[in-house]
Amino acid sequence: MQKRVLTVIIVLIGISLGITFLPMAWLAIGYADNMWLNNSVTDGLIGAIIFYIISLAIVGPITAGVKKLEKQLNEFSLTYIVFGVVGAILGLTLGLIGTSPLYRVPVPFINSGLPILIMALLGYLGFRMGTTRIDELKKFFGGRNKKAETNEGEVLERKADDHFHKYKILDTSVIIDGRIYDIAKSGFLEGVLMIPNFVLYELQYIADSGDSLKRVRGRRGLDILNSLQKEDGISVEMYDGDFEDISEVDSKLIKLAKLLDGVIVTNDYNLNKVSEFQNVAVLNINALANAVKPVVIPGETMNVLLVKAGTERQQGVAYLDDGTMVVVEDGQHYMNEHIEVVVTSALQTAAGRMIFAKPAHSSRNIKDDSPEKKLDYDQTKETK
Description:
Its cofactor is Mg(2+). This protein is of the alpha/beta class. The protein folds into 4 domains: 1-75, no CATH class; 78-140, no CATH class; 167-291, Rossmann fold; 300-359, CATH 2.40.50. It is 53% helix and 15% strand.
């Protein structure tokens, strides 16, 4: 459609130029008296044919250039464009006023080329001034807020940037996990939580599964969604669209995140890696949980309850209140007992944190080396 309109415009320009300039051409070559050639209809037709042939070569590049320009303009906000145009107009106006004396100077370049260069430079500077100082211009033309004047010194102006309301697209796994509700309720997850329909359908499919474990997990996810929607301080929206050409839910989530410039919220390790590879922002709940776990350092002591044997010989395993595993060397001798241990090292993995420790008494130096003291120590260890 654009090509046809552009072709029509070029042909109309050809008709106008043919009627205007072809009579002079006929006069120059000696055909001015030929009424079959030198008339408005013939001149317009010849001009139309010539410019139609020209349009076949230039319409394609012009259309591509217009589309590229439209794409670039769409990336800018309306405020940016308006202030830029106003700044450019002011710059051109100043250039026109300032260069008017130059037209009377009897020097070829100064009275023709120099004014154009000055006006172009001032127009560009005006555009830059208008686009780089939008906030200052808003305050200058908009005036001061009466409420701000009244509470001056008490309330500071702030504005949320464009990313404040960025969509947080929830994955099926993070909904079933349930921790997303507590995180959103605490206010650490800003913006709008988006639930795509294909994620809701997957939850419903899991809730209707014949496997009792899957059925419980699916119903838990639906309960979490209802809780999120009923919470006053949490903004939840549904996405009704679908991607029929994509079968996997994870791929649909990545496609939707690219379409809306959103952030995927998940605790799926594989989805996290695939999203990062495709330059899609991801918030991993497991990564958040690991980040807020208490940090321990070698040499720190703690009191733990050994609950089971470890995988290696004579190891015992205990757990902190947050679920962190503590592997205690020689811990099998103290099963189901509270003992004081000394941290030797800590290992951070994608699955969580592991702490390695040993009983506190094994790291203490025994200053009294008498046989009686050594015998009492050995008997106490054997009794335990």
